[in-house]
# Entry
Amino acid sequence: MTLEQLIDGFAAVATASVADAVDKVCGRRGYMEHALKPRINDRRIVGPAVTVLEAPTDETLPPQHALDLIDEAAPGSVVVIAIGGEADVAVWGGLMTAGAFARRLAGAVLDGGVRDIAEIRRDYDFPVIARSVSPGTTVGRHKTVASNVPVVCGGIEVHPGDIVVGDIDGVVVVPRAQAAEVLAMARDIDRRELEQARLIVEAKSLRQGLARYGRI
# Structure
């Protein structure tokens, strides 16, 4: 499948179904820690990951790898920033959002904080999923050390090109090599759950629906 077909497909299935499909196909958990939540709006994020790694520092440096990545990433990319779960600084704000919006990126997923919430909502309505909201800057506290390398965000390893699916249910990372298989299973899960829900409503019995489909 092409990347465009994968993105369109994952945009149309439930995030929970994607999480269940990753469990089965990949044999491991693919969903991030529950602390990562949408902070701007409820818009869904689906796209290939581009990654940034940050580390502590006492130097006064701009987040250069992140700034460069925003300008260089392909439209539709999802910026994933790893900072070791540091919740008390913002790795994303209004200016970075302006750049991402201009470049038509799909969203940002942050293992740290976001700031300038009112500005981002008012001017861009850009979807950001973050560990926290914080007014604090990374400058003088953290620095970017690499981009488009494997990172750990929300407890899950993310490789550049992995498919990121995120919304109010959480964030799931789908390994690119297994994305087509995961999508096929997620579609099947969605289909079976719809049939099961209809049966439960029609029969007025949760037990009957569970007995037929064996799924909860």
